[in-house]
Amino acid sequence: MAEGAPVSEGRVEDAGRLGEGADPDVWEVFRQEKDGDPLRHAGNVRAPDRELAVQYAREFYSRRNESVRLWVVARRDISDLSDPDLLQPPLDRSFKKPGGYVMRDKLDQAKRRAQEEAAE
After folding, report:
1. By CB distance 3.0 to 4.6 Å, which of 12, 52, 75, 98 could disulfide with 22?
2. pLDDT for 105
3. pTM to 2 decimals?
């Protein structure tokens, strides 16, 4: 590994690195199977330039019309954000999560009350 190069967590070899230290000939391919579906990582191709990378991606990931959209991105242009301090929100906002108000528990309580009242 080059001295002073950024190290991403979980990366063992230089070939898998993202950002400026990445192999300039590797292009990541994302595909969408049908309109409305999310784009998913399909794999990568090796090509010396964008035009050839697009051709390779089309051939490998859309030859049989299995994709309606492809994104081809140079691996060196991808930023890896894995620092937990940057990913965690600075304030507790758990009240905004749907788990704070569980409807199932409220329904169970209401059913028990109704059964108790019916038994009386």
Report:
1. 75
2. 77
3. 0.56
